[in-house]
């Protein structure tokens, strides 16, 4: 149970999870077009608390801070800043550079509200949990449409993602990205490394591409994607974070990354669900993510598909630029630069 009280004209104290979270400047406008304030954002997360807990609590979380609200300066932090409350939890995490540091762990709703007060409009959580950061319990297919691709086409690809995962015995649940895409999520047993889960995700994405070759691409380089939907397989790698379900996205409309059931997909439109409308939808329909937690799927069949693809000459795909060169990775260079090493004249 959360309780808010006015501490001064410049702050509000919220009592939640046995902790006091100070919300500074609650009247600061965070969504200029709508006129919505930081306090309205805090109040939103209090309203959807049971659902957002399910999606982000207990996971290492990247702090994407916008202290001046949407449209203002943006910076990222993995480590909590100095001056954080003593009850704030962290987890020892290893980053692609090989360095280790204490990363913010969203341990409860008080932690979430602390992050919102620090300027985090949305919450970007790892696919693993603070109790086992190196073994994910979620496989993610992130559908990222190129400019000009409509949401109906994205939904078509999402449905095929479900079919492919289902054929491998992997149950899935969709949510909107809060923008133009869809995230297809699967709860998995935490038995495999990030590298193995990424490999399984690539195998699934390749099968989707085989079925929709004119609509789906796995090209990491934007110049090669054309007018297609990119399945971002790297979201399954280590040190990758995705906007959690029920997070408000940092755009002027305050849209929400909204989970839904597969049978509802034809009626879903990404701009319909916002900070103002999501709580009522949650109350009316419940949280589909609770159903995702009912099954922990085995990705062994997907890893067998990956072995099959490797035997056919389909090996690894490029990693993000902040990762060291990985064994078996193809050349990590833009195709245009590879063709013209000196660059354009």
Can you tell me about this structure?
The chain has 345 residues and is an alpha+beta fold. 26% of the residues lie in helices and 21% in strands. The protein has helices spanning 38-47, 49-56, 109-117, 151-167, 194-211, 278-285, 289-292, 300-311, 335-339, and strands spanning 3-8, 11-16, 19-24, 29-31, 36-37, 59-65, 75-77, 90-94, 100-106, 124-125, 138-145, 173-176, 182-187, 216-217, 229-232, 242-243. Strands 6, 7, 8, 9, 10 and 16 form a six-stranded antiparallel β-sheet that branches. It has a five-stranded mixed β-sheet with strand order 12-13-11-15-14. Strand 8 (90-94) and strand 9 form a beta hairpin. The longest helix is centred in the middle third of the chain and has 18 residues, at 194-211. The protein is globular and about 65 Å long. Mean pLDDT is 92; it is low at 341-345.
Question: How can the largest sheet be summarized?
Answer: 6 strands, antiparallel
Helix content: 25-40%
What value does the average pLDDT take? 92
Query: How would you spell out the order of helices and strands?
Result: EEEEEHHEEEEHEEHEEHEEEHHHH
* Low-confidence runs: 341-345
Count of extended strands: 16
Give the CA-based shape: globular
What is the tally of helical segments? 9
- Helix/strand structural class: alpha+beta
Cα gyration radius (Å): 20 Å
Distance between the termini: 64 Å
Range of strand content: 15-25%
